[in-house]
Amino acid sequence: MNKVLQYNGYYGSVDFSLDDGVLYGKILFINDLVTYEAETLPGLITAFHEEVDDYIDFCRQVGKEPEKSFKGTFNVRIDPDLHRRAAIKATLQGINLNQFVTNAIMHELDERPEADDEYKRELENITVSVQALNQNFIAATAVGAISNFRSIRHSGDDSDV
């Protein structure tokens, strides 16, 4: 279930309060806290759109950057055995753990890191090699069939004599 609203390049959360009987959320990934609420889902979507538009206008008026900047670093807590296996695989690939995790994230986001490009090139080389082998096999099979046909024809000629 997707609990994230999207509008104009911004994302917003969707939550509810049983005590108050309302839906509410906040604009995600910005430097400020901007919230919205409504009693219905269509009302919440409208409130989110209005708050995004108001936030963009406010930032323009005060001359500030509206989107939150990401530093490019974050902590990840994983099982120690998974950490060990990832570090070993990264080492075997000749990369550090940070690059390994970056590649994994890019793969999950369906962006292709250089490792995938190398894999694609190798796969293309293998495909070309297999196609060449197939062509050689077909040619050899055709030559063999012609040779067999000539043998049969010649042996048939000898029996007629």
Summarize this structure briefly.
The chain has 161 residues and is an alpha+beta fold. It has helices at residues 41-62, 80-92, 97-108, 114-160, and strands spanning 4-7, 10-13, 15-17, 22-28, 35-38.
Relevant terms:
161 residues, alpha+beta, 5-stranded antiparallel sheet, 5 strands
Description:
- This protein is of the alpha+beta class and 161 residues long.
- The protein folds into two domains: 4-62, no CATH class; 80-134, no CATH class.
- 58% of the residues lie in helices and 14% in strands.
- It has helices at residues 41-62, 80-92, 97-108, 114-160; strands at 4-7, 10-13, 15-17, 22-28, 35-38.
- Strands 1, 2, 3, 4 and 5 form a five-stranded antiparallel β-sheet that branches.
- A hairpin with a 6-residue loop joins strand 4 and strand 5.
- Helix 2 crosses helix 3.
- The radius of gyration is 32 Å and the shape is elongated.
